[in-house]
Specification:
Blueprint lengths: L1 H10 L6 H66 L2 H8 L4 H6 L3 H7 L3 E5 L5 E6 L2 E3 L9 H12 L11 E7 L2 E9 L15 E7 H13 L5 E3 L7 E6 L5 E7 L4 H25 L1 H32 L3 E6 L4 E4 L1 H7 L3 H4 L4 H5 L15 H8 L3 E9 L5 E13 L2 E11 L1 H15 L9 H18 L2 E10 L1 H8 L1 H17 L6 E6 L2 E9 L2 H15 L3 E3 L2 E3 L2 E9 L6 H17 L5 E3 L3 H22 L2 E10 L4 E13 L3 E3 L1 H11 L2 H21 L6 E4 L11 H10 L7 E6 H5 L3 H12 L3 E7 L6 H4 L6 E4 L1 H5 L5 H17 L3 E3 L5 H9 L4 E2 L8 E2 L10
Parallel strand pairs: 20-21, 23-25, 25-26, 26-27, 27-28, 28-29, 29-30
Antiparallel strand pairs: 1-2, 1-6, 2-3, 4-5, 5-6, 7-9, 8-9, 10-11, 10-14, 12-13, 13-14, 15-17, 15-20, 16-17, 18-19, 22-23, 22-30, 22-31, 23-24
């Protein structure tokens, strides 16, 4: 159709006025010019797109190289921190201390910095210590050092001793145990002249895995998820050779770079084709197509705007701050992330020199000169710069730490500008500070923990040796803290620990240090003491401060403090020995009645070793079943008839023979083994009761329950389960508790007492009169009987005070309607006095000694 219309126009040319023919000629010329222009534009568009793709690939390579250099610098900074340290020289280069290694340059560094391995090598290239994520290794073959690793070590040894910063560290790619790693090696260098390095050629190497760590991080930053290592250069995409430290090839790193030109060509070429068709149609339908031409031009403009908007959208959505400058140092563009970080508006930042505005600053907040500004340096020499230890200043004057990369923009080898990509690393710095804080301070109390405390103690010991000064150490354990935890709960216990920490801190000098070792154990470091008496005065102040009432969210609690004191010099040579000896002295303070202090004596070591031996025997006794129950009758004084039995636990010690509860129950309570022993007593008593009942012998048994078992270690559900397992009624079992259990009127204890009573189990108060005897709590609980402690019965006949106390207990019990059992009755005279004064029941050697179940003569019930 188009060709016929052209022919018709040509055949009628003679009839067309000259003006129209001129117009037609002009139209044809214009159309031809447009067609040619469109064709040239298509060719140019393809060329520009290809050039943009090449530029993007080059920028991608530069970004990769810059990131590798940045990560190498970070790795070098970590390893340099540990080698330029006196303690590191003493513990590694001098002695290769494995325990210190784990806590510092080994496992701690591997976990903290995400290392693939940490390796210490002596001056003869013999690997001494190595740590990988799987653990520490000490028996290391020399073959572990690959050629590339040896080359890196040799390069590190060539660095001058005066080198600082990155110049002191040799970094490169090495092979290690079959994998590729980015490694940094540096010589050990003492901080002070007092410390001598016995092996100046010893090195420390830190490394991060290339495929598992470095490439993953770089790929994430570059937005190239297909970044990978290949053995040979790929046919397509961008690649960078991987060269080991010894110069050998390790393949290439390849990835697919961004292709903005290809995307742009794909978007615009359809528009060019549409324009060509539009121009062809214009020949036949000039007037109509003129309108369409305007529409097409409008559509083309809109497409260009959309393309520009898409490009700007990409820049706007990047999380890092980005701004570009021209060759004169003036800002030409900036993205929203950068504006949000520095607090400027677009008009305030674009078109101005960024240096006076955001002003790169060093960590000590001193200003960089314009000549030292990394952005200006890139414009001057065309070399990319990166930094991770500077700060930027916001418009309001506040500052924030940044890491940034400045990449030059070049055209024909000339620098035409630069692009700055920066990231606010405030969060990371805070995380690092938090990690350092958690490593040295107790999370609950905010006090120094064992790590920091031992470090400060070691420093004070060094100072003491130089200045011939005296250092004191208090090892403190809170008395009765476990009862608070068991009765009021762990939240109350935590609150008590915080309040105790405050009181201790307020009781010491400004130069002293309070630290928490864990649990309810604290240590107070006392430097520059005049004499040992000064330590005792501080111990008295601390004991007094901790001896007053604690308000735990409405609950009152009282604790004390048992303190062991050591003094340097004299009681130990190092921090570990001083802490150990102070711990021994603290246990002596507990044995002396608690809430007091004791100075360390060398004789304490033998005693504690014996006590710990007994603790180990007790743990084995629980495992080996070395306990046995003896039973002692409780008799009715009116007819000497046995009314029930009391089960008493004994320990058949393999060497010491049969031990009574007084020999081991306090230790069991202190170590927590009382829970397992108490559970065994419950089940064994129920088993024996069931056996007697099967034989037709009906008798009830009372078991003793320690205050440490209530309420957590002997829950009512456990008691009910034991009775049900042996088919016993709840009335067959009685439980003897001490007054301290009732006096601890906490919700958990009240709940336990009520639950036990609801099961139908009878409760007796054992050793009545030795604790907090009071009518106020006896009236709140339904009790079966009171048992008068043996200590009152022993002096009953010749001690008027004991007689008065026993009369008062009998009168009180009678008023409450409670039967009374007298414990430890050994003579007829004692029994007669008790019976004459209204006591109904008794137990003791006068009637029967505690014996095993087989030795009891229990009549068959009728």
């Amino acid at each position: 159709m188009m060709s016929r219309e052209i022919q018709a126009i040509a055949s009628n040319t003679a009839q067309v006025p000259p003006t129209v023919r001129l117009l037609g000629t002009l139209v044809k010329a214009v159309v031809a010019a447009i067609v040619i222009s469109l064709a040239l534009a298509s060719v140019l568009l393809v060329h520009i797109g290809h050039a943009q793709d090449e530029t993007a690939a080059e920028a991608s390579e530069r970004q990769y190289s810059g990131l590798i250099r940045l990560l190498s610098r970070q790795l070098g900074s970590h390893v340099r921190d540990y080698t330029h340290w006196d303690e590191s020289v003493e513990r590694l280069a001098a002695s290769y201390d494995a325990e210190w290694w784990d806590k510092n340059a080994g496992a701690f560094a591997v976990d903290s910095f995400g290392l693939s391995f940490s390796l210490a090598v002596d001056g003869s290239d013999r690997p001494r210590l190595a740590t990988t994520p799987s653990g520490r290794r000490t028996d290391l073959p020399v073959e572990l050092l690959t050629p590339s690793l040896r080359t890196l070590l040799a390069e590190a040894r060539l660095r001058p001793a005066s080198a600082t910063g990155a110049e002191a560290v040799a970094t490169g790619i090495v092979e290690f145990e079959g994998g590729l790693h980015l490694a940094g090696a540096v010589l050990f260098l003492p901080e002070s002249e007092e410390v001598t390095n016995p092996d100046p050629q010893a090195l420390l190497i830190y490394a991060r895995s290339l495929p598992d760590d470095i490439f993953v991080e770089v790929a994430g930053i570059m937005g190239s998820p297909d970044l990978r290592r290949l053995d040979a250069a790929p046919g397509r995409g961008t690649f960078v050779p991987l060269v080991l430290a010894d110069g050998s090839s390790a393949g290439v790193v390849a990835w697919t770079p961004p292709s903005p030109g290809r995307s742009m060509t794909a978007d615009v070429l359809p528009l060019v084709s549409a324009a060509f068709l539009f121009v062809a149609a214009l020949v036949a339908f000039f007037a109509y197509r003129a309108r369409r031409l305007a529409l097409a031009l409008h559509a083309d403009e809109r497409a260009r705007q959309e393309l520009a908007a898409r490009n700007q959208s990409i820049l706007d959505t990047v999380g890092e701050g980005i701004f570009g400058i021209d060759q004169h140092g003036m800002t030409v563009f900036v993205n929203p992330a950068a504006l949000a970080a520095i607090g400027y508006e677009v008009g305030e930042f674009v078109g101005r020199d960024p240096h006076p505005l955001i002003c790169c600053k060093l960590p000590d907040c001193s200003r960089n000169s314009a000549e030292d500004c990394p952005v200006r340096q890139v414009l001057a020499d065309g070399q990319a710069r990166s930094a991770a230890d500077e700060v930027f200043v916001r418009k309001d004057g506040s500052s924030f730490p940044v890491e940034f990369v400045v990449t030059p923009v070049k055209q024909d080898a000339h620098v035409t500008g630069a692009v700055v990509v920066f990231r606010d690393i405030t969060g990371r710095r805070q995380t690092e500070e938090e990690i350092r804080y958690r490593a040295n301070y107790d999370a609950l109390t905010g006090l120094p923990n064992r790590n920091l405390l031992v470090e400060r103690l070691s420093q004070e010991l060094k100072l003491s040796r130089r200045e011939n000064a005296t250092v004191g150490l208090l090892f403190l354990d809170l008395d009765h803290f476990k009862e608070v935890n068991d009765t009021l709960g762990h939240e109350a216990g935590d609150l008590l620990l915080r309040q105790a920490a405050t009181r201790m801190h307020d009781s010491i000098r400004e130069t002293d240090t309070v630290g928490r070792l864990g649990g309810d154990e604290f240590v107070i470091l006392l430097p520059h003491l005049n004499d040992a008496g000064a330590a005792a005065l501080i111990a008295d102040k601390v004991i007094a401060a901790l001896g007053t009432r604690f308000d735990l969210d409405g609950h009152d609690a009282w604790v004390g403090a048992s303190i062991g004191i050591v003094v340097f010099p004299g009681d130990g040579e190092d921090a570990s020995e001083l802490l150990r000896n102070a711990d021994l002295a603290m246990y002596k303070a507990k044995e002396a009645g608690r809430n007091t202090y004791r100075f360390y004596k060398s004789s304490m070591t033998e005693y504690v070793l014996a006590r710990r031996g007994l603790e180990m025997d007790l743990r084995r006794a629980v495992e080996n079943g070395e306990f046995v129950l003896h039973y002692q009758p409780i008799v009715d004084l009116r007819d000497r008839r046995t009314v029930h039995l009391e089960a008493l636990v004994r320990w058949r010690h393999p060497q010491r023979g049969l031990l009574t509860p007084g020999d081991f129950i306090p230790l069991a309570e202190e170590t927590g083994l009382i829970a397992e022993i108490g559970e065994w007593v419950l089940h064994e008593s129920c088993r024996q009761l069931a056996q007697w009942r099967a034989m037709g012998k009906t008798i009830d048994v009372a078991i003793n329950v320690s205050g440490r078992q209530v309420p957590r270690d002997l829950p009512p559900e456990m008691i009910a389960s034991a009775l049900a397992a042996h088919g016993l009624p709840s009335s067959a079992l009685m439980i003897e508790i001490t007054e301290t259990v009732l006096f601890n009127d906490s919700p958990p204890v009240r709940g336990w007492l009520n639950a036990v009573r609801e099961l139908g189990i009878r409760l007796l108060i054992d050793d009545f009169g030795t604790g907090y005897s009071s009518l106020s709590y006896l009236k709140h609980f339904s009790l079966e009987a009171l048992k008068i402690d043996k200590s009152f019965i022993d002096g009953l006949l010749d001690n008027k005070a004991d007689q008065a106390l026993v009369r008062a207990i009998l009168a009180m019990a009678k008023g409450l309607g409670l039967p009374v059992v007298a414990e430890g009755v050994e003579t007829e005279a004692q029994m007669e006095w008790l019976y004459a004064h209204g006591c109904e029941y008794a137990q003791g050697y006068l009637f029967a000694r505690p014996v095993e179940a087989a030795e009891l003569d229990i009549p068959v019930s009728r």
